[in-house]
Each structure stands twice: as structure tokens, then as C-alpha cells.
Amino acid sequence: MDKIWLSSPTMHGDEQYWVDEAIRTNWVSTVGVNIDEVEKLVAQKIGRKYGVALSSGTAALHLAVRLAGDRLFGPALAYHGVLEGKKVFCSDMTFAATVNPVSYEGGECVFIDTGYDDWNMDPEALEKAFDIYPDVKLIVLAHLYGTPSAHMEEIRKIADRHGALIIEDAAESLGASIHIPSISSGNRESTQSGGAWVQTGCFGDYSIVSFNGNKIITGSSGGMLLTDDMEEARKCRKWSTQAREDAPWYQHEELGYNYRLSNVIAGIIRGQIPYLSSHIEGKQTVWERYRTGLRDLPVSMNPIPANVRPNYWLSCMIIHSEAMCPQIRSERGNLYTDTSGKSCPDEILSALMKVNCEGRPIWKPMHLQPVYRNHTFITKAGIGRLENGMRIDVSSDVFERGLCLPSDNKMTAGEQEIVIDIIHRCFK
Ligand SMILES: *Cc1c(COP(=O)(O)O)cnc(C)c1O
Fold first, then answer.
1. What is the largest CA-CA distance in the chain?
2. What is the pTM of this model?
3. Residues with CB under 6 A from ligand 1
4. Mutational test site, ligand 1, from 210, 216, 257, 265, max ligand atoms within 8 Å of CB
5. Between vectors from CA 117 to CA 349 and to CA 189, what angle results, nearest 5°?
6. 69-105 tens-digit pLDDT
């Protein structure tokens, strides 16, 4: 069988056209029409005033952290991180790229536990964190696997109450939206029952998306920062191109980066944008086939709360606790015991690998990562994750029992049946 990927790029031909156009007209550097169009189209689609196209989602997160730091604490000196000595509340169960930029700038990530209902930041744990550290002024939050936070409005209220800014990592959730009952205007899609569906990427003081190779649409790489503040968009664009001042020579009065998107890569992204909704439809079909196909097993799909519309980027499942076979994970290895009627993520992942199918464990929570071992982790019960020697946090439970299934848009129904069949065999 051909390899079934977790999530590989799906090209259509338009991408080639805009890349060729860039080469034909010799605009192959970090200036050009593809970049301008991508910034305009993505900001428009999401509903933000300004988009700044950057070399990656991680670069966008880094510049978001710089902007937030400048706004909160004043500009950083060249040799000091802008968050030096400051605590920042961060999503715990996410990709390391969400939180690393806080560390690049000398900030201290404090990890906030996850909720079972949406697998995103738990607002109760966030409240607890503010009880313990009331002076924190920045929150970095991700929408995991394309399912938006179901508690975004609540989290915004908590942030406002403490005068904190929010950096929204929508790298995985481009095209996903949240129902907001209290608004009905703008370019947001209004509904008959009142309220409107608002795209992820609208909820941060600074928001970011990614065009990395396995995301819902891709440029092979690339990212974008979104904001409604013209001056901050200008600053971000300047920093991303080495922070040159308007002078006859290379004059530097701020610290700069080489983070701008290439016009060639922007051509690929420009060609992908018209296919965003069809990619989402394809991913939804994959998710629904899994839901139907796995219905008779003691497992659930990743949760989708009623007030959000995911982009279904990755289909995930979680095994019910009573159906887990013994599974032990060390830092780099794992062991499990094949048990009749039960299974575990590592058994399923290795069974899939044997037939050339790519699954993946859930993002290992940041509070379990050795690189962040001495950082604080907060659940709704308070600091730490042990109570009477028992694990009580949600992140490590979802990590232990959950996995990402092959979610490629080019997987056929027949191929997906094989995947579903393999999962069934693991429970035999
Ligand atoms: C992919 C991803 C990023 C990073 O994006 P890059 O473009 O690969 O730098 C950040 N956060 C999350 C949650 C991601 O999945």
C-alpha cells in the first residue's frame, strides 16, 4: 500500500502559475505581488485589518511576543529579551513552537492545564493561575488540531480583568470559527439565531497563522502575523526585514530579524487560498468517517463543542480509561502489554506504522518536556499535577490515551477503511 500520511500538502496547479509568474517577472525576493496578495486575502478572510507575511508561524509568534513585550514593558535593549524576568501564561498541550518564543525573549512560561471539553486552555485553570500570579500580563494560547477554544470569550474577559494581552496561535486552525452571540456585524458571517461566526485569528491582540507543509493550506513554509493596529503592523514588517531605519546607510536603532516571506513561497500560498474551504470539507469527511467507523469501539473522537466550527485539520481519538491496556512511556521509549479487549495509543501507532500509515501521539504537554522541567504548571486545583500521588491534570491524561490518526486529504475511503480495520484489530 502507498504511504498514508498524517497530513501532506495537497497541490492544485494554481500554485505553479503564481510561482512561475514570480520567476518570469524576476520578483523572487522578499518583495512582490504574491506577498501583497497573500497578506490582503488572508487578513480579509480572517477579518483582521493587517497581515504581515513572515517566513514561518514560529517567526510570527516571536514577533508577536516582541510586540506584546514592547507594548507592556517598553522597548527591549538590544541585548535583553523583552520579557526578561516576566511570567507568561501558556497553553500546556501544544506544539513547542507556540511557547518557545516566550523563552527566546527571556520570559518564563507558566503552563496552564487543558480542558476535556475542547482540548484547549482551561479557563478555570487560567483563573487559578491569576489567583496565584496576579501580575501576569500576557497569555499565549493555541487552538489545538483545528478545533477552536470553546471558551475564548471567557478567556478574553479574564485577560481584560487583569489587563493582560493575548497572543493567539491559530497555526493549526486557519478557517475555523467560533460562534459569538453578542455580535452580528462586520465582515463576520451572521446567523439566523443571532450572533456571528468569527474566524480564529481574530481573538488575539496579536494572532498568527502558519503555512508549514502539513497545515490545512501551505506554502511549503511561511506564516503571518495579524493585528488591527497599523503602527504595530508597520513595526513588525520593519523588524522582519532587519530593522533598517530611513537613512542613506544601514542604520539600526532596533534589533531586527530576517523573517520576511519570500515572494516565491507566497506564490504557492496564493495558489492554495482558493482551496481552503474544499480542504476543510475534505478533512471533515475524514473526521466523520472515523467517527462512524470507530463508533463500536470504547473510544471517542477529539471533542467538538457546539459553539465552534473546526477546520478538522487532524482527526484524533482518545481511548476510554477502562479500555486502556498497560502502557508505560519513558522520556524516549515505550512499552505496552497486548491485552484482549483493550489497546493503547502506542499499540495502535505501531500497528499503523506496520502498514505504512502515519499516525502521531498527541502533542506531549510542555510541563512534561525536559526542556521546561523547572517551569510551573497550573491546573484548576492549583500548582503541580499530583494530588495524593495521583495524576490529576488533563494534559497528561489526553497525552496518554489520545492519538492523531492519518488525516490526509488524499486518503481514499478504501484506504481509510483499512486504517479503521487495523484499529479494530488492536482491540481484539
Ligand atoms: C505548526 C505550528 C506552529 C509553527 O508554525 P511553523 O510555520 O511551522 O513555524 C506553531 N504552533 C502550532 C500550534 C503549530 O501547529
1. 75
2. 0.96
3. 56-58, 94-95, 97-98, 142, 169, 171-172, 210, 212, 223
4. 210
5. 105
6. 999 998 877 667 999 999 999 999 999 999 999 999 9
